[in-house]
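re: the backbone from monday

yeah here it is again, tokenized this time
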């Protein structure tokens, strides 16, 4: 504990020295982060492969190149983001200067999960650096190889007075959370999100919570089956389904279900071959605990695609389930693995009702040949993000904010939103020292003031 406190105190001293405030310092740290990615690419890709059997392409697309894009975007826009924003004034302040200053919070704590261990640690860090904060990073202890890369290879690139990486699991994070940070950015499960928020509340520390849950995917009658199946299968089985924005279950009528299942079988075979276990592009379950949890879910409903498992390899085949009940665990808990249940509903109104009776999801998907149906679902529901006629693609746009609502989290980041979330928007008014006669109206005594009453 005392060493965490010492680390925090020393980062706070650096923060208070003003070191992180200049544009030049922030750019230098962002560039250093870029060099870390380039010079350690092999080690990063190997760690992702060891932890999750992530193929090279998948790792590039969803981890390293997304981070690279965010770094470039921040470097190119930092100067304009940092500028004071001048605001409209009233009569009494006409000759003054009124603006919003984007101030750093101070020392922030960033806690990451294991499923995109590089991306989910470094993209928030880009926001923290851009906004001029110091940071303590706590990677997931479960993705052990990536944790090692972040703890051993990253620190030499960053200013050691301003950034530190802490390794560990629940006990270590619990100790960290006892300290008074200026901001906490947490990505993980809703249950741990509540623990983080409760700990932050003791110090009135503001938080961003990037959480998970069940993302519904409505499929309307008459969709293009080939395209729809490809897009759902890709987004569900990417990273072996261990993605917070993956479609968690499909809602459709029975006729659509009967057409969709063979189309998804074809897509799966095209993507991963007849034996997905042999595909270099299909991932593995992160650990034994999650493997056993997912294996149990295979007992829900009826398996119509996949269902095979190999414990030694932590392999679960891409699986589609039908005939699931609302009360089945697979329809109650976040699946976070390569299993896709299809739950039948009579029509779009019933699908909307089903969605609105549950926690508000991180992402919501609607496929339809009719844009009016997609828009109708968008208008009548609530979720962190929404994507019509595809899965997950909305989060690839740096211009869109990313985050949840309700049980799926609070606070949005990516691109400029990351800079904003790590900045305190400080209200500043710099008054003119003269023109006292204009101020006289607000000074007592008030007894002789005619208010026209
Ligand atoms: P998790 O909540 O178990 O762990 C996340 C982090 O919290 C880890 O660093 C872990 O060490 C720490 N932690 C775990 N238990 C803790 C405790 N009791 N006290 C203090 N710290 C604790 O989540 P996970 O299993 O790593 O990740 C999966 C979850 O994360 C899923 O729910 C998924 O949807 C969600 N997720 C959300 C996003 C998003 O951007 N919204 C992204 C990825 C994952």
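seq for it, each position gets an aa:
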């Amino acid at each position: 504990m005392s060493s965490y406190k010492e680390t925090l105190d020393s980062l706070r001293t650096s923060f208070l020295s003003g070191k992180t405030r200049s544009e030049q310092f922030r750019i230098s740290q962002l560039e250093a982060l870029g060099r870390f990615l380039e010079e350690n690419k092999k080690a990063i890709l190997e760690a992702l492969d060891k932890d999750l059997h992530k193929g090279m392409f998948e790792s590039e697309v969803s981890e390293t190149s997304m981070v690279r894009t965010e770094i470039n975007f921040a470097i190119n826009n930092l100067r304009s983001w940092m500028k004071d924003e001048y605001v409209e004034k009233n009569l009494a302040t006409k000759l003054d200067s009124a603006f919003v200053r984007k101030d750093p919070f101070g020392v922030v704590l960033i806690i990451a999960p294991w499923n995109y261990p590089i991306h989910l640690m470094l993209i928030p860090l880009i926001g923290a650096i851009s906004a001029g904060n110091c940071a303590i990073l706590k990677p997931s202890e479960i993705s052990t190889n990536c944790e090692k890369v972040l703890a051993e290879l990253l620190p030499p690139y960053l200013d050691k007075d301003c950034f530190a990486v802490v390794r560990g699991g629940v006990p270590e994070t619990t100790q960290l959370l006892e300290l008074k940070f200026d901001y906490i950015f947490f990505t993980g499960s809703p249950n741990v999100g509540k623990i983080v928020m409760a700990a932050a509340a003791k110090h009135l520390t503001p938080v961003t919570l990037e959480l998970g849950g069940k993302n519904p995917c409505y499929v309307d009658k008459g969709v293009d089956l080939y395209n729809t199946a490809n897009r759902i299968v890709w987004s569900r089985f990417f990273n072996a389904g261990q993605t917070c924005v993956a479609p968690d279950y499909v809602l459709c009528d029975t006729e659509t279900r009967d057409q969709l299942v063979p189309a998804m079988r074809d897509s799966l075979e095209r993507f991963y071959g007849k034996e997905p276990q042999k595909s270099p592009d299909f991932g593995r379950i992160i650990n034994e605990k999650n493997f056993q949890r997912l294996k149990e879910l295979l007992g829900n409903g009826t398996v119509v695609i996949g269902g095979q498992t190999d414990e030694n390899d932590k392999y679960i085949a891409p699986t589609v389930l039908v005939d699931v009940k609302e009360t089945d665990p697979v329809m109650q808990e976040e699946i976070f693995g390569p299993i896709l249940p299809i739950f039948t509903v009579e029509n779009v109104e019933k699908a909307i009702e089903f969605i609105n009776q549950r926690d508000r999801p991180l992402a919501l998907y609607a496929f339809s040949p009719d844009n009016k149906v997609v828009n109708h679902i968008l208008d009548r529901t609530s979720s962190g993000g929404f994507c019509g006629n595809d899965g997950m693609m909305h989060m690839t746009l740096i211009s869109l904010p990313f985050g949840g609502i309700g049980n799926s989290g609070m606070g949005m980041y990516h691109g400029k939103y990351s800079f904003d979330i790590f900045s305190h928007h400080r209200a500043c008014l710099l008054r003119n020292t003269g023109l006292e006669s204009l101020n006289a109206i607000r000074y007592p005594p008030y007894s002789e003031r005619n208010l026209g009453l």
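The two ends are 64 Å apart (CA to CA). Residues 216-405 form a domain with the Aldehyde Dehydrogenase; Chain A, domain 2 fold (CATH 3.40.309.10).
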